[in-house]
Structures are given as C-alpha cells and as structure tokens.
Amino acid sequence: MPRICCALFLSLCIFLATENSFGQTQTSPPVNKDVIGGIEFLYNWEFDRAESLFDRLIEENPQDPMGYFYLAMVSWSRLVSGTWTKEMVKQYKRRIDRTIEVAKKAVKKNEDDCSAHFYLGGALGFEGRFKLAKRKYLSSFFLAQDAIKALKTSQELCPDNQDVLFGLGVFDYYTARLSGVLKFLSYLLIHKGDKEEGLRKLHIVADGATHSSIEAKSLLLHIYLFGEPDRYDKALVLAEELTERFPDNARFKFFEGVSYIRLDKASRYRNTVNFFREKSSNMPSRNKAFIWGSRGVYLEVSDDLFHDRIEEAKLKLEAILSQVDPVSDPSMLAWPLLKLGMSYDLEGKREKALNYYLQVLKLENGAGAQFLAERYKRKPAKPKDPFLGY
Fold first, then answer.
1. Would you give the distance in Å from CA 170 to the centre of its chain?
2. pLDDT at position 28, please?
3. Which of 188, 205, 222 is the last residue of a domain?
4. Is 201 in the same domain as 268?
5. What's the half-sphere exposure (Cβ side, CA atoms, 13 Å) at 78?
6. Same structural domain for residues 259 and 352?
7. CB contact at 8 A, 9 and 226
8. What does the pLDDT read at residue 213?
9. Are 54 and 70 in contact (CB under 8 A)?
10. I need a surface site. Which of 246, 256, 331, 344 has the fewest CB within 10 A?
11. Within the chain, what is the greatest distance between any pair of CA atoms?
C-alpha cells in the first residue's frame, strides 16, 4: 500500500509553523493558524481549499519554505486519496523539489532558522519516501540520512518543538522494521532503528504537537491496524477520534469499521456498514453517493475475507466494479481488482490471482494499489493477511 502505507504507510512527514526571528534561537516556533486550517482542509478532503490557502502563503512570503511544503502536501494527499496519475506524480515531484530548493536557500541565509531546517528535513524525507516506493533504495537512504540531519538540527535549535519528533519517530519505527539488505543500509547510513522508541515519539506528537498531531494519529492508526498484531484496540481509539473530527473523510470511517472487525465487535461493525448506507442515501449527487455506498460494501468485503467467505467477497467486489466510474473514483477500480486477486490467492488459484494483479499494474491510475499488486505478484496473499482490511 502506498500510505499508504504507508508506504505506504511509511515515512509521512511533519507540519510546523514558521515566522522565525532571524539571529535568535527559539525553543519552539510560533503557531500559524493558516497552516492549521489548511491541514484541516486536507484531512476533510477539501483539497481545492487547501491549495488556494497555501498558494496565498507562498505569494505573501515567497522566501519561506512553509507554503511550498504544504502545497506539496496537497499533491501528496491527492495521490493518497486515489488520484495516482502521471500528471499528479509529476506535480508532486515538482513541488517537493521546489520546497527543498527554497528551504536550502533559507538555511544558507540563516543557519539558526529552525523552521527552515525542519521543512528541509520534511521535504527530504518525502523525497526519500518517493524514491523508496520506486525501489531506488540507495538514493532513498542518502535522502533519509540528510533528512535526519536537518531534523536533528531543527530539534537542537527549537528543543521544545514536539512536531519535529514526528519525522524522527517515523525513521526510528520503520528502520527497525526493515530486514536484509535494507536493514544493513539503514544501520550503515542512518542509525539503528528502535520500534518502541519510534512509537513513543509518535505518541508524544499525537498527544501534544501543534501541527503534526493529526498526521501522527493517522500514521499510528495505520501501524496498529496493519503493522502491529493484537493492538487493534489502540487502532480503534484513534479511528473513532479521527472519524468524529473529520466526518467527510470516508477512509477514517472505513478504518473504524475494520477495527471493529479485528476486535470481533460484530454489532458495531454492522452499525458502521449501516452508517455508510445511510450516508450514501443522503448524498446530493450520484458520485458522492457511490463514494460512501461503495466503501460500505468494500468494508463488508474485508469482513468476508477475514472470515473465509471468499465467494461472498468476490460477488461484492464484482458489484462495485460494475458501477464504478474510474475517473471520479479510481480507488474503487484499483482496490477491488487487487482484492479479487487476493481472493483467488486465498483459494489457491494463483494464475487467476496474477491476472488481477497485472490488471492493477496496467492501470493508468493505480490509486496506490499498484504497490501491493507488485508485492503479491511476487508472493501470494495468505489468510489473515492484515491488508485484507485495507
């Protein structure tokens, strides 16, 4: 998965306010309310509003990397939401490169600017994540090395800034999860990972950081659902909180439902399915109705697959595919195709499974499912695979 996992739910980055006083060392940067508002837009899938806001920040202060960073995050959020087109990838790459360029100039102008180091580290981390997704491992690790250096410098300059712990926690957790050659490279080029230390830092950010709190909660939700067995109770707490805060974000509601499935809370799972149906019936347009309705059916697919009801799952997936508009909702084309492949793997029908993975890989917009398709093309999906619930 791409966020997706998160990378895909890998190294998501960090949010911070700026307006440093040049020539002074601060313990924590001031809060920027526009940035907080823009982050709210991103998580409620109001991407156009976020884009306009961050464009204005750039226009007001073109030498500050802040606006450029968050504008790149708009592109990244669109990718994560399913718009994984060549054009959007190019836009994201262009924007993150511009952020790095502006941040390096700001650092050169004032080496004590903790915000500039912060955004440089964040942008380098995202660029490294992008390279990692493309399996450019060596360049990815060099970028990660530079990102950690910039983040640690920012931390030294602003020791009370909890937001900086997000990027450092991500690196601690995920480098500890690596194996083989990747583990050797991380130890050689970055540092030895520490999973529990990474989780500790991420929880500090989730509980008290100004700008990175939401992102840390979202990442921890992914970790506890898909990376840490038997911590589904922690995932549920996060999913319920994020769902309440962002009622227009169908993904958080979906993960709330998956948490109920994993915890065997059958009645609450059924309530979540009914919520999707009711939400769909109250939508003002066919497209919005399908977005909510299809995700309710897709949630039922996850329950079927976790409980070995493979035929029922396949019928529901075919029903989604028969109605999907690949332009307005590409996720509900790519991910059901992937789940059909996983379904056939669970039945031991490898050739049929491979056919569906190849279909995903041939899509112009793989909506992030292409990353798992590559994985399962190499090695078949197994029963109880956590990504049956993705």
1. 12
2. 54
3. 205
4. no
5. 24
6. yes
7. yes
8. 93
9. yes
10. 246
11. 66
- Report the alpha-carbon distance of residue 49 to residue 52 in Å, rounded: 5
pLDDT (tens digit per residue) in 115-159? 999 999 999 988 887 777 677 777 877 888 899 899 999 999 999
Residue 21 confidence class, pLDDT cut points 50, 70, 90: very low
Assess whether 180 and 273 both reside in one domain: no
Are residues 148 and 200 both part of a single domain? yes
The answer to whether the CB of 102 falls within 8 A of the CB of 117 is: no
Which pLDDT tens digit goes with each residue over 297-324? 999 999 999 999 999 999 999 999 999 9
What is the average pLDDT score of the chain?
A: 87
Its domain, for residue 93, covers 33-205
Cβ within 8 Å of residue 96, ≥6 positions away: 72, 76, 123, 126, 127, 130
Integer Cα distance of 203 and 164 in angstroms: 13
Place of tokens 């789940």: 339
The CATH number given to whatever domain includes residue 94 is 1.25.40.10
Residue entry with tokens 């790095």: 100
Q: Tell me whether residue 100 is in a domain.
A: yes
Q: Are residues 57 and 172 in the same domain?
A: yes
Whole-model pTM: value is: 0.86
The residue assigned the tokens 């497209």 is: 287
At 65, the pLDDT band (50, 70, 90 cuts) reads: very high
Beta strands in the chain (DSSP E): none
User: Within a domain: residue 116?
Assistant: yes
